[in-house]
Design goal:
The chain is mostly helical. It has helices at 13-27, 37-44, 48-68, 72-75, 78-98, 102-115, 119-129, 135-164, 168-187, 199-212, 214-241, 250-264, 267-271, 274-277, 279-299, 304-332, 337-365, 368-373, 375-384, 393-407. It starts with 12 loop residues before the first helix and ends in an 18-residue tail after the last helix.
């Protein structure tokens, strides 16, 4: 049943949780492919590099959606934008499921990524229509759904792909999108637009907002840096866990990723304290937790207790910073909340991409986890006298396979594939 929404007057909890669930289901569409790339490459008889392009095209599509689709939420009625995006998702997901060749899959993956930005429309909506004291909590609920969808999607697609084949998950995803379409039609009211003008004028106004609100630049940078730290931890963890004293298999490494889901569910609780503690204080708390997480990971790096504690601390700390700063950004100009979110998330992604470019060199030379993990490959081959001692790519292939399994559950691990691809023999 549709309920009328008024700015700063509150959102029914039933509507809010429904939007959070739809956020998770929608964003999952761009992550289903990651545990399935090897299967896709074998099924279509394509190279591993070509299969990896599927994940890359999905992420490129998502970035394009953030930049060019999200601002439309201020120009047109958001309900219509959401319905159009979900409709395109149904078609693109079915196209992937039925595609006979990689070219069609790449095109459909690009569309899927671009139209999976629906959660980034829900967040400004939650901020604009919530009461001032519940804005942070309500944005946190949407964020919880988003993060849970990202993490759980890899688990689900990995299991389903193992038993039903890689195409089946896309048929299921298309069916879920049809359900989401029906739900949105029934429950989401037709909200008015916030901007009068042309699309060109809308996009031009992004630069005006950046100049007008210096704080927007600051909060975006802070959130990006916090996620960079989070990304560094997950990038190294898979390598660390397969070494002594753990010698963890794929299942154990993957289970650690489930700790991320536990952390994701704390976002709504963290949001409650933004109004009480303020953005600055919560940012300090988040930074303290992240620093404590790295200390815990270093001191307790040889025990599961230390590793799990570090994962939870860095996850909660990252969310303290992101949620408080994103909510602060929305408060700068509620009538331009979608454009504000575009600037915030675009800056965020630029920082993450910059980190991706630099992290392989940094990890090889400075990260304690990587320093402790790397020598064991060469040392073991020298000491054991195995035939593979003169063929280091054998060991690369072995740990790479384990790493790919762990990425099915870890939010950040897929970003490393492009840097540690299989060497040419």
């Amino acid at each position: 049943m549709k309920q009328e929404l008024k700015e700063n007057q509150g959102i029914p909890s039933s509507l809010l949780w429904t939007l959070a669930i739809i956020s998770g289901v929608t964003v999952a569409n761009i992550y289903y492919n990651q545990p399935l790339l090897n299967r896709i490459s074998r099924d279509l008889n394509i190279s591993e590099f070509t299969a990896n392009l599927i994940a890359m095209f999905s992420q490129i599509g998502y970035a394009l959606g953030l930049l060019f689709i999200i601002p439309l939420g201020d120009l047109y009625r958001r309900r219509n934008i959401i319905l159009v995006n979900i409709s395109v998702l149904v078609v693109s997901l079915l196209t992937i499921a039925l595609a006979p060749n990689i070219h069609l899959i790449l095109f459909a993956s690009l569309l899927t990524g671009a139209c999976s930005v629906i959660p980034q429309v829900f967040m400004p909506l939650a901020a604009q229509y919530s009461t001032p004291e519940t804005k942070g909590k309500n944005v946190g609920i949407i964020l919880s759904g988003l993060l849970t969808g990202i993490l759980a999607s890899r688990v689900v697609s990995g299991i389903v792909g193992e038993y039903m084949g890689w195409r089946f998950i896309y048929f299921v995803a298309a069916g879920l999108m049809v359900v989401c379409l029906i739900v949105i039609i029934k429950i989401l009211p037709d909200l008015p637009s916030n901007f009068q003008g042309t699309y060109f004028g809308l996009m031009k106004s992004l630069f005006s907002l950046v100049r007008k609100y210096p704080q927007l630049r600051i909060v975006s940078l802070r959130a990006g840096f916090s996620f960079g730290s989070f990304l560094a931890m997950w990038s190294c963890l898979a390598f660390k866990m397969e070494q002594a004293p753990f010698f963890a298999g794929n299942n154990i490494i993957g289970m650690l990723g489930l700790c991320g889901i536990a952390g994701a569910l704390t976002a709504s609780s963290i949001g409650r304290y933004i109004h009480i503690l303020g953005v600055k204080r919560l940012t300090y708390i988040g930074c303290t937790l992240i620093i404590s997480a790295w200390i815990t990971l270093y001191v307790g790096q040889y025990s599961y207790v230390g590793i799990i504690a570090g994962i939870l601390l860095i996850d909660i700390g990252m969310q303290c910073i992101q949620l408080s700063n994103q909510t602060s950004a929305f408060a700068l100009c509620p009538q331009a909340s979608n454009r504000i979110n575009t600037i915030f998330m675009t800056t965020y992604f630029i920082e993450i991409d910059s980190f991706k470019i630099s992290q392989p060199h940094a990890l090889r030379s400075t990260h304690p986890f990587f320093l402790k993990a790397t020598p064991s490959f060469s040392n073991s081959s020298r000491c054991s006298g195995q035939k593979g001692a003169s063929r280091p790519w054998l060991f690369t292939t072995r740990w790479q396979g384990r790493f790919r399994s762990s990425e099915a559950l870890c939010i950040a691990c897929p970003t490393m594939r492009e840097h540690w691809g299989r060497p040419t023999r």
